[in-house]
Write a structure and sequence with these properties.
This protein is of the alpha/beta class. The chain contains four helices and 22 strands. The strands form three sheets. It has a twelve-stranded mixed beta sheet with strand order 2-3-5-7-9-11-13-14-16-18-20-22, with helices on both faces. It has a six-stranded mixed beta sheet with strand order 1-4-6-8-10-12. It has a four-stranded parallel beta sheet with strand order 15-17-19-21. The protein is elongated. Bound molecules: 2-acetamido-2-deoxy-beta-D-glucopyranose (6 copies). One 2-acetamido-2-deoxy-beta-D-glucopyranose (NAG) binds near residues 331 and 334. It holds the Pfam family LRR_8.
């Protein structure tokens, strides 16, 4: 999948490089200063606060097998491993702690209230450690925080609503933790660029109405969200490029409004309980590269318009009940498109479902106009028998869902 280089990834690297550059030019300056006075300048009040915060943090780190925080002693916090300083954006003569990067150092501990003292932080990267507990409410003090990556840790509890109070936040990565409960609708009202919440225990339905969102990447995969994709998904149209809803227990028909997401490059709704046809509107997604509808209960015709999308490189629709491929859809490889059409009801194709399974599906067509969300169809006569629900088999992990690429 071409999903690795999300814009935020590039932004974060650029920001780090900038921070490193600023902090090295700053320390070059202070080194020069030192030559005249033979002692380091006393830390400014900001760095004194940072010292208090980082010592409190160190105290609640219970395991640090690589001795990463061993040099977190003394008042020169800018020399600590994983701590990045830069001139304050408010006052360029004052050096402040602008970044914490503890990615992948296997630390166990929790986040103390004192982290709220690091009010100049722009970046927190704690990816792939063993941090547990909940996020302190004092994080709301971090008014400059731009990137928060807590992925692949052991954070628990309900959605950490404190992140909703961070005015500068653009990149939120909570994937691979043990958060649970419902998603606050306000999450989608924030000016975030990327939202990764996959591989948690979030449950409850997808918010029924998305307000206009600015996110370009939204990954919900491997949570038990349930519910249907609401027509208001179109409110993401101006920015959304990747929508990954793999294995989220969503049901119902794909709303035609999915076709309004004109910037979409990746749409993956595989391993759900979707029914009904492929909306024709998807044929309007000129930038679409990856389309994965596999492992649902969708039916009807695979429309030609989708198969001739100019940028499509992979169209996976195996394990559904499609019964006809229009035109070139029957020969996607001739268009250079990777595809998987196994286990459908395509009469001319190998590796399809049994006639018996297919007949049952044909006898009970889904009427999307009357389908009531929540998995209870209006009539009862148009329900697909549960016995036909395909069993999920393959492990699910796509590059943009895996932790560690921020
Ligand atoms: C960390 O420090 C302890 C105690 O000084 C030492 O025994 C251990 O080998 C160190 N571990 C690493 C990975 O350097
Ligand atoms: C620092 O800020 C002052 C006042 O805002 C400004 O004149 C100066 O150019 C800045 N210096 C740098 C290196 O940004
Ligand atoms: C918030 O930041 C300010 C300024 O750095 C600091 O004085 C204050 O103690 C912080 N509040 C909390 C709750 O950490
Ligand atoms: C689907 O998501 C659930 C969590 O909601 C998880 O337990 C399960 O392992 C996932 N299935 C696959 C095939 O990854
Ligand atoms: C196409 O996408 C599917 C689903 O993401 C993936 O399993 C498959 O490997 C991809 N095929 C190619 C050739 O990239
Ligand atoms: C698929 O397209 C190729 C190249 O255009 C052609 O040679 C082949 O006969 C087609 N196969 C079918 C089954 O139509």
């Amino acid at each position: 999948m071409k999903t690795m280089a999300s814009p935020s990834f590039i932004i974060s690297l650029a920001l780090l490089i900038l921070l490193l550059h600023l902090s090295s030019s700053f320390s070059a300056a202070s080194h020069h200063h030192r030559q005249h006075h033979h002692r380091p300048p006393p830390p400014n009040p900001k760095l004194q606060q940072a010292y208090v915060a980082l010592q409190a943090f160190k105290k609640v780190i219970y395991s640090d097998p690589r001795n990463f925080t061993t040099n977190w002693i003394g008042r020169e916090v800018c020399k600590y491993n994983g701590i990045y300083c830069s001139p304050s954006p408010h006052d360029n003569k004052t050096k402040v702690v602008a970044g914490i990067d503890l990615n992948g150092v296997d630390i166990a501990g929790y986040l103390p209230d004192e982290l709220g003292l690091l009010s100049d932080l722009a970046l927190i990267h704690l990816n792939s450690n063993r941090f547990c507990g909940i996020l302190p409410q004092t994080l709301s003090n971090l008014s400059l925080l731009f990137e928060l990556d807590l992925s692949n840790n052991r954070f628990v509890g309900p959605f950490p609503t404190v992140v909703l109070s961070l005015p500068s936040l653009k990149y939120l990565d909570l994937r691979y933790n043990e958060f649970e409960g419902s998603l606050p609708p306000q999450l989608f009202a924030k000016n975030l660029d990327a939202i990764f919440i996959n591989n948690n225990w979030f449950s409850n339905v997808v918010p029924p109405s998305f307000v206009t969102s600015t996110a370009s990447v939204v990954v919900f995969a491997n949570n038990k969200l349930r519910g249907c994709l609401p027509p208001s998904i179109s409110n993401f149209a101006n920015t959304l490029e990747e929508l990954l809803l793999i294995n989220t227990s969503i049901s119902g028909c794909l709303p035609p409004e999915v076709g309004y997401l004109y910037k979409l490059k990746v749409l993956d709704v595989s391993h759900n309980n979707l029914v009904g046809p492929i909306p024709y509107s998807i044929a309007g997604l000129a930038h679409l590269e990856q389309l994965n509808l596999a492992h649902n209960m969708m039916s009807g015709v695979v429309p030609m318009g989708v198969c001739v999308l100019p940028n499509l490189v992979n169209f996976t629709f195996s394990y559904n009940f499609f019964c006809e491929e229009e035109g070139i859809c029957g020969n996607l490889s001739s268009n250079g498109i990777a595809f998987d059409d196994r286990r459908n009801c395509l009469p001319e194709k190998p590796k399809q479902r049994s006639e018996k399974e297919c007949e049952a599906a044909l006898e009970h067509p889904v009427d999307c106009f009357h389908y009531h969300c929540g998995g209870v169809p209006s009539g009862g006569s148009n329900a697909i028998p549960p016995a036909m629900v395909p069993a999920a088999a393959t492990p699910l992990l796509s590059p943009s869902m895996a932790p560690g690429n921020a």
